[in-house]
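lol ok so funny story. i was supposed to be doing the assay writeup but got distracted and ended up predicting the structure for this chain instead. priorities right. anyway since i did it might as well share w the group, maybe its usefull for someone
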Amino acid sequence: MNDPLANDFCSVCHNNFNIPCQANCSHWFCGNCIMLVWHHGSALQPCKCPLCRRQINLLVPGEASLRRRRDPDVAEILGQVETYNRLFSGRANGLIQRMQDLPFLLRRLLRELMNPQRSLPLVIRARVYIAMILSAVYVLSPVDIIPEGILGIVGLVDDLLIVLICFLHVAAIYRS
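and the output, tada:
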């Protein structure tokens, strides 16, 4: 079945389906509704089905959703669904995929660090701060593996590499 039944409705908003997506537990939701459920909880874990409480590891957009992909609002929701699937479908993530996920994870981390209602555990918070401080100290210190004074712009490569490694490490801490 590629789309929900005609007389069925979303169990979150109780309206007709708008951008229908089927979860791995076979329940159907509006794409926007299930993304709101995910964003309401922890962004580090997959959300649970509002009906059966089973963990949702995969969201499959319906045929009707895919036909409306040219609509900017639908494209945005489908992009969020693809991000969700990439994070929680269990596929191995390579270095390039991790770098593509970096802006999303860092934005979410910054939002959680700044929000007093949704504070991260102290251990995670401390590890993030330590990694950021150590990378800032290395970048700002005059001691470098490749000195800028001798090699000019090429000397910035090690600083950029340290910052990239720091961001990847922080994203890995946040994801775990």
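The chain has a mean pLDDT of 81. The radius of gyration is 21 Å.
back to the writeup now i swear
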